[in-house]
Structures are given as C-alpha cells and as structure tokens.
Amino acid sequence: CGRPPTSGSSSNGGSGSKGTSSGITAKARSQAQAAVKAAEATPSFSAPGPSFDASKAKGKTLWIINISSSIPLVQVSDAATAKALGMVGAKVMQYDGKGQVTNYVAGINEAISQHASAIALYAINPAQVAGPIKQAEKAGIPVLAVQYGEPGAPLPDGISAQASYDYTKAGQELADYVVANSKGPIEADLM
Hints:
Elements: E1 10-11, E2 17-18, E3 21-22, H1 26-40, E4 61-66, H2 72-86, E5 91-96, H3 101-113, E6 118-122, H4 130-138, E7 143-146, E8 161-163, H5 167-181, E9 186-187
Helix pairs in contact: 1-5, 3-4
C-alpha cells in the first residue's frame, strides 16, 4: 500500500511516496522535551465566564445530531453529556447521522418537530446544514457546534456557541512528543 506523494519526497517503489526524513538537532530535541514536560503538567482551570444556575436546565431536552454514532469518541462524549445533563434533570436525545448529510438534515428537522430545547451538531460542518439551522433559529432553538472548528474562531452563521478541541495545539504537542522521544531521524507523513 503506497502513500500519497508529498512535496520534496522520494519514491518508495509503491504507488505513492514516502515523506522526507531529517535529523534532529540537540537544541530542537531539548525545546521539544521542554514543551512535552510543560504539556504533561497538571492543567489549571479558569472559568470562561460567571457561574450559572444549572437547575434551570431541568425538563429541557438537548438533541445531539452525531456525524456517526459508530465512532467511539462520539459514544463517550454523548454518554458523558447525558450523564451530566441527567444530574440536573435534563435529557439528551441522540440522532445518528451515519456520515450522511441527508441524515443530519433529517435529525435537525426531527429535533425541531419535537421542540428541542437546543440542538448540538457533533463534528458536522454547519455549512452542510445551513437551511435546517435557519429553521431551528426561526423556531427559537439554539444550535451548538461541537468538535468542529478551532476554539475562538468566528461562529458560523446560525451557531449560538461552540465547544471544540484545539486541533492546532494538539498537532503541535504531537510533533513535540515525536521529536522529544525520537532516537534518530524522523520519517513522517501528513494524513
């Protein structure tokens, strides 16, 4: 199985090509090791805003429209969300998008027809479901983007709030870990 070509790469004799490899300087390794050590420290938490009364969620229903419920991370996240909201008397309805835009649309429409209190789009590009998002807005139902986009980026049209990983920082930390723990040249491919 070959890999897709990368610029500046050499052929591996397969249908694709290997990425380039390079040595790591002592300075680069030292910087990466310091970055890894800092990333492994116990994080601190600062509330992003004032406290609020979560008991106001009692009796409300959050509909989560998942990109695909077969993904383990989606399953873990949905279970944690349901548990947390259950602690304050709210409930979660999950809709499996099965990786198909037509299913995402159907899920949002179902949530609107069931008078959801809020709709969360899990790893779904809001641009793909712009029409149903507008319909949810007209119905007074806030729509949240979860695991889509970088934190702090402008919110897509119709999206009330966002909760996501910092994908760029995760990539930087992964690269630092590889450099810090390599014993020789690194050969890497971008996937």
